[in-house]
Amino acid sequence: MKARAPATASSKIDTPVNMPTAPGPVIFVIFGGGGDLAWRKLVPSLYYLHVNRSLLQQFAIIGVDRAPFSDVTLRKRLMDGVRQFSGLGAVKPKEWKAFAGRISYQRADFGSIATYRMLARRLKALDRAWNAKPTWVFHLATPPTLVGVIPKFLAAVGLARERQRARIVVEKPIGSDLESARRLNTTLTESFHEPQIFRIDHYLGKETVQNIMAFRFANGIFEPIWNRRYIDHVQISVAETVGVEGRGSYFDHAGSLRDMVPNHIMQLISLTAMEPPISFDANAVRDEQAKILHAIQPISDEDVLSRSVRGQYGEGIEGGQRVPAYRTESDVAPDSRTETFVAMKLLIDNWRWAGVPFYLRTGKRMPARNTHIVIQFRQAPFVLFRDTSVEHLMPNQLVLHIQPEEGISLQFAAKVPGPVMRLGSVDMNFEYQQYFGKQPSTGYERLLHDCMIGDQTLFQRADMVEVGWNVVNPMLDLWKALPPRNFPNYASGTWGPKEADELLERDGRSWRNFEK
Ligand code: BG6
Description:
The chain is an alpha/beta fold.
């Protein structure tokens, strides 16, 4: 069963909450401007904002990196990224010319103060040329080790001091455990004030992730049943078909738990489970997110053994092709014990969620790329249809499809036509694309825009990052103390180790898998 899209979707669109204002003059400094993130995500997103006229004429990008590029070689490289990743199709020469004219390059040694002095001179020169005080965004698209270094130098040359206009953007991972995350947060706050720090998690840039809040708090019908009285359990799955894709040197040290859980998956949990904020003000929303993460029941060592599962992919078939085992990927140790799959059961100790399990899983080389949240409601209290062939009732499930299908579906029972009483399970579907059309998105457009206008709602505060690590820290510790003996324990192209299925089966439940 499909909900029909209105003839003109726009007739149904209301004024957006938190309507973004346009950024003023901005200088966007990308540390690591010659690297992968700038090429694949940052510059394609900025180009999208340029094409949509969301940037003023007074906008400049300065790429700062070690490579011996010139302005021209950097622009050429970035144009290739825009063509491939902006989702806008062919790059229009006139648009590109106008955009490329704003890009320049500075070759740098990140460990030398001379780099930062030169940058400061360039920034001040633009103040004079534009006769304005542009916002400075310092985006650290560098290896994590430099996140502890660059802010100190920026502060040393006075570039952090101007609180109204200097902002720093930091990518995940923020640390590799609770302790290192705290250290990094301390380093950051020694140089910048918290309102200047934008810790990015690209999951919050996804429309469908933001839609979780709209769905819950803009509709009166769901909130009354969004609690332990009506909800049996929640499942969050982030399944990927890719392997480590040339990122072995990072991933083999991180593993799936660090890579996905304290950040992306915690965002999904907090938005699904948080209390309604008192407003859409950045701190009001983030207070509620932080509170729910604080309410996650601490995991004891025994819980780690009984309520978490780790796995590593072996070779197998993915999309009809034979693919290699994790241990044979480049930059991965041949006897690596790093997990590429993790599943766990968490409980939230508050009045709304007490006793409702949240099952989470994420893995690489799964049969389908699919991120979704399943809210499974309790069964009807008894089977009314006695003396009929109906013996078993399917539970109602509400599914929030995050990607690649973006939408919401509700599964419920309906009578199958015919003289005999039989029930079938049907779906009511809302598909984003059907209503609103396809929006090109790398996930960074909204986030970079929000950073430029100084809105921190969709960015992680220091306490949120730390509480995310706090949840997974017992697992990191115990897993380190007890290295796995059975890796690889799932074949590529399957839904992970059998223990992940058993985790739910023990509770009389099962994962909902979406194959496409
Ligand atoms: C990144 C992880 O943060 O998110 C990657 O480091 C992962 O390992 C990626 O593949 C998933 O992002 P998305 O947007 O493809 O779901």
